[in-house]
């Protein structure tokens, strides 16, 4: 059984897409651990604010199956893959970690965004405070405590 963490972001039809993604992932993965929902300004482009959160789950799925599940779920919510890195997203699912696996293929794990984006690190630290980053061997809570990059981020009331 592998412990996985997936970040979820959306700035298009935010409430609908976030609720639907969590519902669909729960049906595919089983019980989910949910962070709070955070609203954040768009990073890297001018656009609508995002809703972001992180989910945790235990799964028997292989890494390749989890990656495929994320892509399929994004596609179901109209994800456009046009090569533009910083743009609006109907749904963005990023596998942050798969147990303590460190790899660069088929995806980078642990995902670099953990260390650079408050909208990833803060919700991850919320639901996995004592889990150690596989490379740095520091807890996500400690990494969040030491985080100093200014990014506007706030918890919003959100009902699933």
From TrEMBL:
Q: Gene3D superfamilies in the record, alphabetically?
A: 7,8-Dihydro-6-hydroxymethylpterin-pyrophosphokinase HPPK
Presence of keyword Nucleotide-binding? yes
Which EC numbers does the record give?
2.7.6.3
Pfam families from the UniProt entry: HPPK (PF01288)
Question: Where does this protein act, in terms of pathway?
Answer: Cofactor biosynthesis; tetrahydrofolate biosynthesis; 2-amino-4-hydroxy-6-hydroxymethyl-7,8-dihydropteridine diphosphate from 7,8-dihydroneopterin triphosphate: step 4/4
Q: Which InterPro entries match?
A: Hppk (IPR000550), Hppk_sf (IPR035907)
One GO MF annotation is:
2-amino-4-hydroxy-6-hydroxymethyldihydropteridine diphosphokinase activity
Superkingdom of source = Bacteria
Task: Write out the entry's keywords from A to Z.
Answer: ATP-binding, Folate biosynthesis, Kinase, Nucleotide-binding, Transferase
Per the record, the coiled-coil ranges are none
First-tier enzyme category under EC = transferase
Protein name stated in the entry: 2-amino-4-hydroxy-6-hydroxymethyldihydropteridine diphosphokinase
Which organism encodes this protein?
Rheinheimera tilapiae
7,8-dihydro-6-hydroxymethylpterin-pyrophosphokinase domain: residues covered: 5-129
